[in-house]
Amino acid sequence: MSASGATWLVVVILAVLLVGVLLAFAVRNRRSDSPAEPFAAEPEDRPIAAVVANPTKVEPGTQELVTGLCVELGWAEPLWLETTVDDPGTGQARKAVEQGVDVVMACGGDGTVRSVAEALAGTGVAMGLLPAGTGNLLARTLGTPLEMAAAARVALTGDDRAIDIGRVRVDGDTDERVFLVMAGTGFDAEVMGNTPEALKARVGPMAYVVSGLRAMRGRRTRVTIRLDDGEELRRRTRTVLVGNSGTLLGGLVLMPEAEVDDGVLDIVNLAPKGIPGWVAVAARVISRRRRGHPRVEHWTAREVVVRAEDPQASQIDGDPIGDVTEMVVRVDAGALVVRVAEGSPAAEALPAT
């Protein structure tokens, strides 16, 4: 066959194929009573979220609610990974990152949020907040809705912002633990450790008030506090708190100048004597003043070392970590990406990634 004959043969074959395609579309359109639908993204092309959920905190129907919202917004059905006693969220979040998810939602209390953040810090994968605990302190700080459907929508459609995290070592350990809100020793840790879960389930945040009243009569202890490379400060104290955020329950602000993205930690030392001293401290907290009571001291630093004369009850983000003598805390600036509501005050305050 000549070259010109081969060319014409190719043209004929292409023409036949083109006619076949046109006929197929015509038949399809005749069989359909509705206009042709736009092409839908294949499942593998859709964004996908993972939910790391604490089953003891999650209300019935939450999985169905989040899944339905994902589908409504054009996402794939989410991975649903439940925490366990042995792994409160870190392993599940790491698994989600390995599977290439676009956002990991922490569904539970402050402990679940902290565990998920420990896995996500430094990865660039965003964390969404689905508040289901008693405190939900980071959610309150960032203005995340406390209603589940609204919070899930923010996690799927909000803005990504970088915030600081705190890293803690205790009693010479080389392993660091992550916190997002506060770490501390003394009174606050006693309250957290002595508040029964059953009481929190029954009365919510008021459970901490009950435990706090019981702990107020405790004794002060001697500590040394070193800020960055400065000299050691010697104090008698009831509690030393190191905060990435200063927000407490009920909108109270313990550290008025604390910001989650300022690259420093805020430290407060409370040293009241007896009930009258606590009343004066409470008045200072309610007034949101940084100064004004001799038993309340504030500092800022990138690293702080607190050493106690005797082992003290300690906590990170409300989770008791036992009695410790030394706590070394440092800031890891901008290490965590969090999904916040588009156009919210928190979104405006945080730097874009």
From TrEMBL:
Keyword check for Transmembrane helix: yes
GO biological process: phospholipid biosynthetic process
Domain spans labelled DAGKc: 44-172
Gene3D superfamilies noted in UniProt: 2.60.200.40, Probable inorganic polyphosphate/atp-NAD kinase, domain 1 (3.40.50.10330)
Cofactors, names only: Mg(2+)
InterPro entries: ATP-NAD_kinase_N, Diacylglycerol_kinase_cat_dom, Lipid_Phosphate_FormReg, NAD/diacylglycerol_kinase_sf, YegS/DAGK_C
Membrane-traversing stretches: 6-27
GO MF term list: ATP binding; kinase activity
Alphabetical UniProt keywords: ATP-binding, Kinase, Lipid biosynthesis, Lipid metabolism, Membrane, Nucleotide-binding, Phospholipid biosynthesis, Phospholipid metabolism, Transferase, Transmembrane, Transmembrane helix
Family indicated by similarity: Belongs to the diacylglycerol/lipid kinase family.
Protein's name in the database: Sphingosine kinase
